[in-house]
Amino acid sequence: MAKVIFENTKEEFSLPDGSSIIKPCEKVGINFACGYEGICGSCLIEIVEGMENLNKPTQAEEDFFGEIENKRLACQCKILKNTVKIKF
Ligand code: FES
Predict the structure, then answer these.
(1) 77: which DSSP letter?
(2) Where do the structural domains in the chain lie, given as residue ranges?
(3) Atom of ligand 1 nearest to the CA of 60
(4) Are 60 and 37 spatial neighbours (Cβ–Cβ below 8 Å)?
(5) Is residue 34 within 6 Å of ligand 1 at its C-beta?
(6) What CATH code would you report for 2-87?
(7) How far apart are CA 34 and CA 87, in angstroms?
(8) What pTM did the predictor assign?
(9) What is the pLDDT of residue 78?
């Protein structure tokens, strides 16, 4: 099992390895305005810890950000293992 922790709200969610993080993000109120297409940027999150535990940025994210640092589009993220700490 993997774990997502939201720094702002201190909420934690466990989810199976390889899961999308959309559900926990929706629970804390992150907006997914374009329906998970990776084009609107409303689901922009900052990865405080554990970027290495997420899937590699998708083409949609590379198109959106250009140079990717600690930001991701939540609709494009899958947690592979361990813990990821998120700020939004
Ligand atoms: S929901 Fe639009 S970019 Fe993620």
Answers:
(1) -
(2) 2-87
(3) 3
(4) yes
(5) yes
(6) 3.10.20.30
(7) 20
(8) 0.94
(9) 98
